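Thread: "does anyone have the structure for this chain?"

Original post by V.I.:
We have the sequence but no experimental structure in hand. Need at least a predicted one for the grant figures.
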Amino acid sequence: MAGLSAAAPIRWSVVVPTKDRPAQICRLLDALTRLDPAPGSFEVIVVDDGSEQPYADRILEFAGLLDLRLEQQVNRGPAAARNTGLRASRGTWIAFTDDDCAPAPGWLMALDRCAAAHPDALLGGRCINVLADNDWSAASELIAESAEVATNFVTSNNAAAARQRLVDIGGFDEAFDGPAGEDRALAAAFVAAGGAIVRCPDAVVRHAHQLDLRGFWRQHQRFGRAAAALDDDAADARRMSASDRARMLRTAWRSGGAGLSARVVLSQAAVAVGVTRATVTRALDHVRQP
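Reply from O.Q.:
Generated one for you, tokens below.
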């Protein structure tokens, strides 16, 4: 491990979960070396969530360029990995991103400005799909952005908050053991504790999430299962309304015509299937209980 001593003050900790994606995490770390100087210092904590072929050596090649630490754990999902990074962090502020992202040079500075203006808020930056030729990835990003605004949450690949606020609400809910739902649950917990959700559009990450039809369908089924698992008392506030969905469809049509619009419709079908399956499974489990 490299970097500052444990006693040194750290303004920002950047937490990144990863699993079985050595090329992606190296691209992410390379992007972090290009960040504009942030006020104070920042550290990077990479959490390897049980990769089948660990690649610590490749990650630690960046230790001379970043205040970098590597945490390793058995596979427990991205929510647990982010919490591992949170516990290991020394920063006053925590920023989360993912290994298939590349923050723009001004990303951390933009988050810092937002944090200074809104110290008690959960901050959400802007994600840009960089896979211009992949309509599945473009549709996924458009849907995520529309859902964020409509249901008041921030995606965990570009989120930040004060460390103490995150600790006080218990971090991410590890019941969401797959890549879906933990960001919505975090936002709900933040609001329930009296915090606000604030958008930071200048905090940009470039997102390169390769998807095909199968991956797109599975992704949105997971979103449906996660929606069914969220606390029932707040579920209505986290569902997109009919007008929100219509607005999303119009945006898809303007952005990419019939092809993008059809993918948005398909995503909603997948979500519905995921919700139905999760609801049926929960009902059957209840019936089986003695």
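V.I.: this helps a lot. DSSP finds nine helices and eight strands in the chain.
O.Q.: and The CA atoms of residues 1 and 69 lie 5 Å apart.
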